[in-house]
Model the fold of this input.
Amino acid sequence: MTEFGFTLLGNDGAARIGRLATAHGEIETPVFMPVGTAATVKAVTPEEVAASGAQIVLANTYHLMLRPGAERIARLGGLHRFMNWPRPILTDSGGYQVMSLASLRRLDENGVTFQSHIDGSRHELTPERSIEIQGLLGSTIAMVFDECTSWPVSEGDAETSMLLSMRWAERSKAAFVPNPGYGLFGIVQGSVFPTLRERSARRLAEIGFDGYAIGGLAVGEGMDAMLDTVGFTAPLLPANKPRYLMGVGKPADLVAAVQRGIDMFDCVLPTRSGRTGQAFTRRGTVNVRNARHADDPRPLDEQCVCPACRSYSRAYLHHLTKSSEILGAILLTRHNLQRFQDLMVGLRAAISGRRLAAFAAAFAEDEAKGDIAPM
Done:
């Protein structure tokens, strides 16, 4: 039986490469997790997600508890079988979605009661219930139930929120049933305030988790504040456990966060952008809907091996998106997933070769050239 565990394989400055062993396979880090909120990565099949190089996907407790229901998924053999993804799955605890999507919510020490954004039905989500749902789903990596601090926020309100999240983290740990190959991550809160982040990180380390996430960022504080917060928070986390930055981000954000010691990422950006006509390339972001692509026979990215770049022109992708054809969303999503996974491969190789600074400089130079420059 595989034990859940993280092995640090090397570093280049603060950046790290590692290997995370789980019940559903190993994960090479740094790693980007495509978001499969409702047990699907939108617009692509699980086979296509795997073909892009993805090692792990994220699904969401809040959405799956409401539809189709955690107990139903458990009766059908668990989330891995349900969505035909045999590799690792990390599940968000649902705390962020309760705050952002639910209506008529009431928060107290015990948890949150709320009305579903789908049908108005009433539900209660507590640390114990969140962990129970994630267990029913069969999550490879479960997350503690927390309150995502709003933005903007005063230091006093951020402290109150952080302390509540720490009490909920302790209850989440108590509710979690250990199982070989499965892990539970704590979530550091405290907004952009270093003292609060330090207190949160220390408390989580005292409780003891299999990994540690930095939450409450990418909520409007801006890139500089986010990276500053990551920079002073990451070194506070146990070096022998994976570090996960939640909800981030653009390719430039990923490179900068890896340089600051982050191992794991998730974000809806590559899939959501694919559905709105945006493609991420080595020359920055391309808006395929722009008229200048209508007669362009080139691929999106001549170095990319995805189906969109191998077989289709920018002109055709422009036509698909302007015509609102489903194939456009499929191909652009598949491309964006490939771009993010290729970036992770490049980052892992650069750290291994201790040439991350050169890699990051070349990355920034390519992005600055823009899409109009010849490839």
Notes: The chain is about 40% helix and 20% strand. The chain has two domains: 5-267, 276-369. The domain at 5-267 is CATH 3.20.20.105 (TIM Barrel).
